[in-house]
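2024-03-11 09:14:02 DEBUG pipeline.ingest accepted 1 chain
2024-03-11 09:14:02 DEBUG pipeline.ingest length=1813
2024-03-11 09:14:03 DEBUG pipeline.predict start
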Amino acid sequence: MLVCLLGLWQGMGWAENDDTSTIGNSAKDVRTVTPEEFDNIIESKDIDYAIGIITDGKRWAYHSSVHPMYTLEATNYTVYCPEAYYDVTGNGKMDFFGYYIDKEIKANCNMYPLIVTSIDGDLIRKEGTGSHVSWATGRDGKLEYYQKDDYAKYGTLDYGFIGFKMGMYDKDGMPLLINRDAQYNFPTSIYSYKQNKIVLKAENFYYPKTTFADINGDGRKEIISFVPSKYNSSNTQLTEEEDGAIDIYRMAADGTFVADKIYVTSDTTVVKSMMLDDYTPNSGTIDKPGSGTQTATGIGYPGQGMFVRAKPAPDWNDWQEYDNITSETSQAKQVITNNGKATRAMAAQTGYVSAADINGDGMIDLYDGTNIYYNLGGNKFFKSPHKGTVYSADLTGNGLLDFIDFGNEQVDLYLSMAENSDMQVKTLLKNTAISNTFFGDFDKDGDVDILFVIPGSDYTIFQFYRNDGNGVFKPKDTNLDGTYTCQACNDYDGDGLYEILAVKKGAYKYVLLKLNNKWSVAETELPSGLSLRTIGDVNNDGTMEMVYNNSKKSYTIYDAVPNCKVNTRPEKMEKPSAVAYADAGKLKISWTRGKDAETSACDLTYELRIGSESGKGDIYLGKSNADGTRRVLEDGNMGRALKYMFDTGNLCEGKYYIAIQAIDASGLGGPWSDEFVYDHKTALPVINKLSDGYCTSDTITMTVQNPNINATYEWNIDNGTIISQNDNGSIVDVVFNRGGEQNVTVNMTLGNLMYKSEPRVVTLIPSKKGDLQFGTYLVAPIKFLDINQNGNVEVLGSIGQESGFFEYKNETYSKVRKTWNSDLGCSSYEFFIADFNHDGYPDFYYPHSKGNLFTNSGEEDSSFEYDTETFDFGFKFTEEPLIANIDFNNDGKLNFLDNSHYLYTNNGDERKFSGLGNIIGRYSYDGFFDFDRDGGLDIWKNEIDNSIQKAQTKVYFKVAGENNQFNPAGTVFYENERRYNMEGFADFNNDGYVDGYFLDHPEGQDYYNMVIVKGKPMSEWPCKETVVIPLKECTFYAGGEPSFKFVDFSNNGYLDIIVGNSFVLLMDKDFSFQKAQYETVPDYRSVDGLKSINEYHWQPLTPGAYPNGYKSSIKNEAPSVPAHVTATSVPEGLLLKWDDATDDHTPWMQMRYNVSLKIKGKTGENAFVLSPMNGLSDEAAICSGVYYRKATQLIVPKTALVNGTTYELQVQAIDLMGEHSAMTKPVEVTYNAEKMIMIDDNEHYTGLAYYGKCTNVSGNAFTIDPGEGGTVLQHSDGGIFSLKWNTPGVKTITFKDGNDVITKLVNVKLLPDLTINLPERVMLNTPLTVRVPKSFQTGKYDDFGFKESEAYKATFEKGDTIATIVFKEVGEQSLQPYVKIEKDLTLSEQFKTMVIDETMPAAEIKSVESNDKYYQVNWSTDVPSMVSKVEVSRETNRLNQFEVLDIVPVGNATYVDLSSDNRVQPQRYRIRLIAENEMQHSDYSAAHNPLHVMINKTADKKGNNLMWNAYEGLEVTSYIIMRGSSEKNLKAIATISGSQQNFTDYDAPAGVSYYAVKFETNTSAGAKGMGRVAASEDVSSNVISSEEAMSTTQATTLYAGTVESIAKLSNSQQQLHMVATILPTYVTFNKVSWSIVSGGEYASISQSGLLTAKGGKGDVVVRVVTLDGSNLSSEITIPCDVNILASDIDVRASKKTVAVGDYLLLNAVLTPKNTTMSEVTWKSENTDVATIDENGILKAISTGTVKITATTKDGSNLSAFIKITITEASGIHGVTIEDENESTEFYDLEGRKIQTPQKGRVYITNKGQKIAF
């Protein structure tokens, strides 16, 4: 123990003087001088700052030494020496690190180089005069690094002197000196003592805002910088409220430093997800993430024990509404199963950073004075706001961390209780004057007490809290006269009692305050005049020494503490134990408490050492010499912990040597323990972890941990491209082209074998904000406009005093140098783009002193003319900002939407605007959307229908061609009995149907849900299905509701949802999403920058760039040019049509279109009816703030057209990212309002006849030309005709009536493609997955699907690309897809296949067994002939996520997993069967987890305890214990119950014994064969030897609980994650076994402790049992009340023909099988033909065909039917005649034919019987 005092107070005078001292450079040069002479010599110019040794024992009674380490005084600063202490020579004595003055260097640059001396004054290192590196302060005030004799500059950092500290070490145990200076805020640099050079310059890391901590448990500290280098992903400094990435440097295994990031989140769902899914690893036996059972693995789940204060929570009903991490009910509901660590205080001034394991989960947490950052592992930290000081210590001795919260003017004590999840909270005292808090066993009774120091005006109170060891703390206080500045509390005099080192105010002298074990305090003065540097046992002699400077601060002295006793060393500790958890890459090292004569066991700290050789500490440095003498003045590196989770990811295969040492309260180390030898096996390559916060624009370096130099590596990277790699591929640089979660694996080839890594998930932000540069300044963009139509967007923004438009040149932005722009200014509200003069170019409105209308010159030279016009907008921009320029009725006149989506129109002068007015029988409406894609914007409104007491959203459809007319009969889109307010519409799942969305505010909650109403075809309105997206963790405007913007932020073709001001929901298929942070481009007129990103402001600023200046490597191609453009006259005006464009990312339903309709031959003003605002340039960018049409047709009203005028139509496609196609070639059309060709139907197809007529034609003296490939079928009076085409394409119909020539363009299409690829043969009653026809996916048709048939059942959702077909009848069958293409015309085709009388059986694993060191999966080959292959999968490191290992022939019967190692860990496997057609397969089998045996010594060391996991997948009846003298000679020694999972062998013979476990089992459900199966020689665990049995600490206490706060199975919480608390927490093996004692009909439990509801109401009693030989058990009762609804129903029968008078049993098959209510309602469509009773027994009444329907009764309201034919009876009644020629056939209850019935099961026969066989 020690205290380092860096210039805390400077005294005057000497310590204890005598007459003489001896000066010299060595023992050979000794002379005696007086103290005064000594000072003069040291400061004289006669000697070069000599190093001397005082040898006269009379002068220094306590053996003092002198060192020329000077306390340097300058104008503005003082540097105190020595700075640090470390035994670099390994002789058991501390060496002193400090500065000295070099005259030559000082004369040039005020340089103070490093000097290192031994405790005896010998010079070890002196920098600055040799070819070494030194630190200095230059004359200009800048810090400089120098090396070599000429002091060549190494680098420059700004301002001030440099200091250093010790705290990092290289793998050889040599110190790395860390510069730090709080006063001058120096950047951090690291100096390697061994290499004698600076090895890192961290330019953006500043002390004290930088800390050093081992945050990943690999034994090497990281450098972490919070302020000011605390950045989000685009290097924008984070505010206090923001999350993001924080820069760090990692120290690699070779000693180099690598830049990296850690990711900080305040999103509690991240913690919850990790708690229940992401982290807890396979224990080597049974555990997987999701179990929450840190006791089964020894690895605490992330977030456990977080001490988080928050506002009181309401009464929570279930897991979804209960936040396990951030809410508390003043009882801090948490699962606390933590290890008592050293008493650490997480306390710091704001901006300073400290590090400690505050929650005892084995990972270092961080604190910056404002927030605690809890380490979640994997470079993730959870930020919890907390001001004040949090102390953590095991105060009750139960191994769990307790907390003292020192803030809010009071001190609260939180005690963690093992038997429940609630913390006991009590307030110890309320006092604002507390200055210090200390912990220790002050009364020597074996537990930790608490001491508060409370200064008064002229006295000090010492408030003790006496711990009785059971959580009861009794106050006891005492006081002393005077006030003290207390600095540390340790045993300074070696008597076993604590002293407080303090400075007595007023007297300004150091004192020791003795804390007697009777709760009294006494003062002992230290020698006067001390300029104290530290107190510690600097020579490991058992006495504590004071290190201080002499009176003139010219040298350093050390003396023994007055009255110091000789302290004895702690005893040698027992050998530690270690258990490896391969999936987690962790090694749990544990040890028992140490012993010491003076220091209580609870106050000992521990030093851990791990080496690649015996006695070494190159893997985890133990800072003690081989004999246990300390090399540092520090606590042990493990603190008070009794276990440590070591990260094995960087270990190579081989043996490692682990030792532990006890350190007492005086800092004296005991002997090292004997070493535990850990044999590390690495079977699979491991990918190093990456932090979150990376973006697709980043080049990401991915590496393999400890790559094998003889291996090669091949990477499999989702959506990533390797751009460079090293020779063997173990290091690659990758660029990703898609955001979100991406899976990465690597294959290692070594010799002839390949090993595949577990997947590593990389989470990427799709894009990040890029800075728009104007020189070195940032542009704040407001609007975008391509003013010269060259494709490079000009940006309207501001830079300091400059504002206006900025253009992109030479990779930077500079102001557009035009007169009109010189003083333009900028505003987000009072600026919008429109073509005011209809010349085809964009103009803009902006009120300015020189004008408000800026008109484009049309010469594409960035010129604008400006003038002042009179505008009347009908509202104020500053109150209602403009959302978009919108052509509401396709007449080309300017309309616009305001921020409230209210529409303003004008009469054609583009100057005067007014609200839309009464258009649907009322003046109010809520928004616009083109619901039917006819090109006209429809109106929607939220209403209340009081007659049915429902809130409704109605749509009023636009009347084509009419300016402001809507169908007054609204159509209900959605309705709800609860009041809601529809917010808007979009197609979120890309199914072609418009979805609605609204906000739901759960009653009593402080968050919102976004509710999406899933769109349906209009024929199926009102829509009923909703999708709920919780928005608990999203931040919004203060006090406001969430705001939404929809853009494709990730460029995957789905509209992403920007929520509030910091989060984006990255949408994907079926409304799935990932939440990510995003960064807004700054907008000084917008509080959150949101107005810079929305569907009207999302476009590339240069061709091919990511929108809005964001950076990303996701590429985007321009869409295709729209095809088949047509224009034709119709009564309403001109009908313009084109085909959907295609795009690499944006699907058809999300495409937008820019439409140009121009008067042929006219240019300039009023040349355009519909302006493209791009001058018809293919290069010009789109315009921001403009609504582009989303339909592929529109009608230009006749009011906007001139009869007889020829127009030119051009169309341009725009994708979701703002990229655009070229304009189509002009298509001419002459508008004829008098005569026009009318032809039926909206779409036209080849091969079909169409009727039409030309208006205003009387006779039949006309001719008609149908165009290429067309045929006139007939024509008659009145201009009537019929046509047909045999080729597709745009056809020109020409109608001649006298001199009148009328034309019409028609786009003739091929008939819809209904092709379905069916295999030649399929299996009966087996799902067949097929891709639906392309016509099902176009969105053109509302009515399509598969025709109803008794021969098959087709299942698919509209919008899906896949359908599932189940054929029910044998023989040749036809599948009939159809699509209704016209009102009275349905197109259908038949596709045939042969249905074979074979049904896919259930996939079943027979066993998973050991095969040498591998696992072998076995299955039965007794399968139908059409089953040809088996797919073998293995679970990844995520629960129930499997990866395919291989697909092999079913006849192989086995598969050996050569990438497994049964010596290290088990693996879970599953299989599925695949048919020969490869389109049918079985469901996955039940997962099998084989036996994996571990061994340990019993507590008395007399027996070998075997423990294993229960074999998962088979019903084990008994286990057979095998033992032998070798691996090949094993014999059964015992048979035990299948409910046991451990066995203790007390009768092992002398020598080494080998063990394995076999088992006997009943067949698993559905397995072939019957009865009891004996263990075979092939079904076995791994083999383990008694040599591997280690001494252990066994469990003494066990409690069962749940991770979830509410231990109940309910409809909303159908799974619980069981958790076992085992004490002491440092037990060696904390494996447990879970089982259900009663209530198994309601729930099942996995061996990982995952309790899953089956359904029903009742209690489930769960039992947990320890497996380490202690045989403890604990039970917990879990209420269950769960209803599981059916998701599908099918009706099956053994035959479909029944004779009159006979009976037939029908069976309703429900999915899932564990549906709570399996009963159905039966109904006969014609009871005159057949009746059916409640049991499904049909009675044939008369001949005919009858439809029988079964409907579920559980509320799901699902129905299915079957048709049964009734035939004439044989004429014999009342007698059953067995047809000898017809054998009895058996079917299971799902209608599958059974070859061999099994006894005890129920079947249906082909005779209509239901029997128990």
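2024-03-11 09:14:41 DEBUG pipeline.report Helices lie at 35-43, 103-109, 268-278, 294-297.
2024-03-11 09:14:41 DEBUG pipeline.predict end
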